[in-house]
Amino acid sequence: MKYYSLNHNAPKVSFEEAVIQGLATDKGLYFPETISPLTPDFFETIENLSNEEIAFEAIKQFVGNEIPEATLKKIIAETLCFDFPLVEVEKGIYSLELFHGPTMAFKDVGARFMSRCLAYFNKDKKNNTNTVLVATSGDTGGAVASGFLGVEGVEVVILYPSGKVSDIQEKQLTTLGQNIKALEIDGVFDDCQDMVKKAFLDENLKHKNLTSANSINIARWLPQMFYFFFAYKALKKYNKELIFSCPSGNFGNICAGIMAKKLGLPLLHFVASTNVNDTVPRFLASGIYDPRPSKATISNAMDVGNPSNFIRIQEMYHNDLEQFKKDFSSYSFTDSETKTAMKTIHDTSGYIAEPHGAVGYLGLKKELENYPNAIGIFLETAHPIKFLDIVEPTLNVKLPIPQQIESVMGKEKISTKIKTYEELKTFLG
């Protein structure tokens, strides 16, 4: 399998090169040269397969022969060492819980998969160190820190916007030590992401072997399609069409879902549910892609003004807006609407949704008006405990502290504050 840049001005590369480089030399995101749908037999008998077997079939064409089959299966087994339960919160509406991993966020899957791929590619390269440079608006930092902790030959530098991640999220990315370092940026997530992209293209930093663990990296992005296969497997018995609503910030999850559909997974429709950072809803309404600076909200992991993965989605639809709209809708919601949805879900079923999941629920409810006979699934991307200061007062509940979170709460935060790209460059050396 070869990968090409979506800016179309860089050489094609292998899976290994795409993972290690993260971003192409022309600043473009990598995309697979071919997408071969899986056989009808696979979907007809999917309920007889384990999650690990499903994931292997879904991902193997994108890895090719660059990782031996037995090693790839081992990587998948280590990646998927927790559950992905569906919880019915209303008749025909399910929460797909993606927060049962070590950092209680959906990004555990991509981070664990990528770290193990990178470790395999580094195993025979003596004295070779990669620097994983990653920007986070919330959960990416913690998942990457956990996934790469102690991985030989890998240094991790995490950039996060000061005061704009939750206390628990900050603890998860600033307290682990070892090969993990955190930079606290005076700005918003888009500033962090811009610094990361600039560093990748800086000739003076080539000696650092920089790569990204944001969803711009194919090894972080592609495994996210596994969730959609698992949900289809669980709901296939109802013989109904499925609609997925993804709370969307950098659009990696929903982009992976569309990739699953391109592989043949029979999904009816996708909803990109956003907070007031509404670049994509505005694009669908006007046909004009007009990114704006991000605004802070209670669903902070979605505070993204210029979602990186949207270009991949456009590529899968050959930039044909009308074809795209047949499979895809996008709606934005305010913090007030989000809190009301959290209360509605809790009052109806006793289910505790955090702000991102509540935004996904709102988008799903809106889209189901067009498809009343379909089953709807919204993605719950993080455990409610990570948004304690929003969830508890909104729902008037007291949340127990899970063990995964308790283990970092008493640790000392260690971070370096910076304001400019030059300071980042100096830090990286």
Protein described:
The chain is an alpha/beta fold. The protein has a domain at 85-103 and 223-398: 3-Layer(aba) Sandwich (Rossmann fold), CATH 3.40.50. It is 42% helix and 15% strand. It has 19 helices and 13 strands. The protein has a 6-stranded mixed β-sheet with strand order 3-4-12-9-10-11, with helices on both faces. Helix 4 runs antiparallel to helix 5, helix 5 packs parallel to helix 6 and helix 6 (139-148) packs parallel to helix 7. The longest helix has 16 residues, at 107-122. The radius of gyration is 20 Å and the shape is globular.
Largest sheet, order of strands side by side?
Answer: 3-4-12-9-10-11
The name CATH uses for the topology of the domain at 85-103 and 223-398 is: Rossmann fold
Counting H and I runs of at least 4 residues, what is the number of helices? Answer: 19
Question: Which geometry do the CA atoms define?
Answer: globular
Structural class: alpha/beta
Number of strands: 13
- Largest sheet data: 6 strands, mixed
Indicate the CATH architecture of the domain at 85-103 and 223-398.
3-Layer(aba) Sandwich
Produce a short descriptive summary:
Helices cover 42% and strands 15% of the residues.
Keywords:
429 residues, alpha/beta, Rossmann fold, 6-stranded mixed sheet, 5-stranded parallel sheet, 13 strands
How is this fold's topology laid out?
Blueprint: E1 3-5, H1 15-21, E2 30-32, H2 40-44, H3 51-63, H4 69-79, E3 86-90, E4 93-97, H5 107-122, E5 130-135, H6 139-148, E6 154-161, H7 167-174, E7 180-185, H8 189-200, E8 210-212, H9 218-221, H10 226-235, E9 242-247, H11 252-262, E10 269-274, H12 279-286, H13 310-316, H14 321-327, E11 328-332, H15 335-349, H16 355-368, E12 375-380, H17 388-395, H18 403-409, E13 416-418, H19 421-428
Parallel strand pairs: 4-12, 5-6, 5-8, 6-7, 7-13, 9-10, 9-12, 10-11
Antiparallel strand pairs: 1-2, 3-4
Helix pairs in contact: 3-4, 4-5, 5-6, 6-7, 11-13, 15-16
